[in-house]
Amino acid sequence: PYIGGEWFDGNDEFVKTLNLRSGLAYWLKGHNANLKLEYAYTSGTNDVGEDYGASSLTLQFQLLFIDQVL
Fold this sequence. Notes:
Layout: E1 2-9, E2 16-28, E3 33-45, E4 51-63
């Protein structure tokens, strides 16, 4: 499991963003493949002072190929 986040505070009175993430990672065949699932929530205030919020769910699969030269 992992947890992450970022906070951005712009140089004016409105632009502010908070991004929070949490997820799971599963490694297969050593480090040759992995499967990740992540949930993220982003909220903030845009440049005209309106609040917003959005959620996202990401599923990612990575596979490593190594070409060995003898």
